Structures are given as C-alpha cells and as structure tokens.
Amino acid sequence: MVQTVGNNAQLPTTRITLEPAVSSARVLDALEERGHLRPSDLASLGIPRSTLYRMAQEGAIVRASRGLYTLPGAAWPPAPLADVAHQIPKGRICLLSALQFHGLTTQAPFEVWVAIHPKARRTAVEWPPIRLVRFSGDSLTTGVEQHEIDGVSVPIYGPAKTVADCFKYRNKIGLDVALEALRSAWQERRVTMDQLWHYARICRVSRVMRPYLESIV
Questions:
Q1: 213 touches 197 (CB < 8 A)
Q2: Quick check: is 76 in a domain?
C-alpha cells in the first residue's frame, strides 16, 4: 500500500506485523500467566487470532473447549458458576456440579451440570462446557438454594435434593457417585433423614433409595 503526498511522490505506508515466532512467544507468555486464553483476549495483546489456530494445529497449545485454549497438560480452571447462571438464567446447578459445590464428591467434572425445564430452549454457551439435564415439575422447582458467587445469585440444588437427584440419574453419573454423596452428606450432617425421604419421593426414587437409607441409620 502506498501513500500519495503533495508533490505526487509516493511513499510506502508502514504497517506493523508481528513475526509468527514473536506472536507465538507472546501467546505462551500469556498462557503461563493466565492459564487460558480466548481469541477475544488477543486484541489487547496485539496478537492476531490466527496465531491461536496455528499454534493449536502445531500442537504447541491445545483447544480445551470451544473458544478456549491452554497449554498441553494444564488443569481445567474452576467452573465459573456465576458465568453459567448469567448465560442460563432459568437453569439450576445440579448433580455433579452441585455435589462439587457442596463438597460431597471426589469427582471433578469438567462440564457444568445444569437443570432446565423440558421445553426450555438449549442455550448456546461458548464456555465452559455445559451438560444440560431436563427436570420437570417439583423436581425442577424444589430444593433450590441461592448462593452468591462473584456478586451473582446462583441457584444450586441443596445437598438433600442433589443426593436424590443423583439416585434418579444414577445411570448417567454412576451409582457409586450417588452412594458416595449419600454417605458424605449423612456423615457430615448436611442432611436429615426427613429431608432425604422428602426429596426421594419428589424424585420418585423412594424404592431405590430405601435400602441405602436404612443402612446408614
């Protein structure tokens, strides 16, 4: 590209372009500092978005999920429940994510489990990865607690309701996870037997839970 000056002479227009090696080095430095990057983060760093795609193809970085890049072997960041609540305002944090929030599981889900109404539209969420489960009736509306996280009120099912949900969805998460949650919640006195029976009836898993409830008394 050229620029015309008053005497009709033409001078080259200067355009600053980072060398690929420089861009790559800046991305690696940013990842070391931040842990994760989105393409939208690169503007403030003066790095073209194509650098992320190129580095991912080369194996220098990995695509952790849609629109999120990190270093190979890096740990997943904590699930931003406040971000999820903002993006899915009518959803409720449930199952594995609720267990993790309440400290009732050794599982570390990389997806955020969210309960929505059976007729609710599936919301497109860029990040974090979302696992939607459709609850209906009282199973959707009861047992919800509001927890303030990063200034946002996040709806999360309480311990007793979550334990019952885990038995209802044991085929999705595993019976061993449901049993671990039940034992932890009972031993830590996070639930009462009346609460467990109440939500077992709502979730229609009274018969399934009965022998396990009787065994912990």
A1: yes
A2: no
